[in-house]
Write a structure and sequence with these properties.
It is built from 6 helices and no strands. It has helices spanning 4-26, 28-33, 36-57, 68-76, 82-96, 102-112.
């Protein structure tokens, strides 16, 4: 779904977000010292912005959300919901949204699949 450089950068962002999440869960002190939660937030917001741009390119067509690539894009940007969960409900609510982090791995699948257009 794009040139090699694009896929490499996107895969790097997925790996970076995953490393931040795992470090935050396994060793919260180190994650706090290295500001990994903030880095993870930046990665999640970048995926959400990409989703919004793709939705816009597809003319906000709801049926696009039900295509293979559209559904994977929606699922892979779900970790961005951790940010408002942290603001609204604190760490307890944020921890309940950690399951959404699985969506990040779907981003790798999205990068590996051919695009709908070709």
């Amino acid at each position: 779904t794009g040139p090699l450089q694009y896929r490499v950068v996107e895969s790097f962002l997925v790996a970076l977000g995953t490393i931040c999440f795992v470090t935050r869960v396994v060793s919260p002190d180190i994650a706090g010292e290295l500001f990994l939660k903030e880095v993870e937030d930046i990665v999640n917001v970048s995926f959400f912005i990409k989703f919004l741009l793709l939705f816009w390119i597809n003319e906000f067509d709801i049926s696009w959300l039900f295509t293979g690539s559209g559904a994977l894009d929606v699922a892979s940007c779900l970790p961005v919901l951790c940010i408002p969960a942290r603001i609204i409900g604190g760490p307890g609510l944020e921890q309940t949204t950690d399951l959404l982090q699985i969506g990040r791995f779907l981003r790798l699948l999205r990068v590996a699949l051919p695009s709908d257009g070709g």
